[in-house]
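Hi F.,

I've been meaning to write this up properly since the lab meeting, where we talked about keeping a consistent format for the predictions we share between groups. The idea is simple: the sequence comes first, exactly as it goes in, then the structure tokens exactly as they come out, then a line or two of notes. No screenshots and no reformatting. I'm using this chain as the first example so we have something concrete to point to.
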Amino acid sequence: MPAEPAAALPRNFLRPCLLLLLREQPAHGYDLLERLAAFGFERSDPGGLYRGLRQLEQEGLVRSVWQPSSIGPDRRTYELTRSGMEELHASVKGLIATSEILDAFVSRYGEFVSLRPPRAERSSRATTARRLTRPAAIARDGRRRG
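Output, unedited:
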């Protein structure tokens, strides 16, 4: 039985993902929930998202403010703090080290079996990756535009 993509994610991977998304731009919970899909998270656990945000806020890595809304209830908007930026940088360095270890493992395993998906599946994944990172949608500073 193949592993689910979310099950293969590093433990506590939600934390650096939230920090990165808030580094790109301040956001409210629903927006973050939508944008987490690009990292393999399903939108079916809003409780986990808000628990994670509360924990980051308690640690001083993010802060939140209530933003008035003209079309509905006020929304809590989260933004990254300086400590959050430092934590994000440290997390990325750790993920790079983990990635190198996993690459070595997969490479060694690849000596026994082919891990390359069929050509059509590779093409579909590449198209999805391009759609998620369209240059027109991401400005030079990494912030997503409308």
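Notes:
The beta strands are 27-28, 62-67, 75-80.
The helical segments are 14-24, 29-35, 46-58, 82-109, 119-132.

If this format works for you, I'll send the rest the same way.

G.
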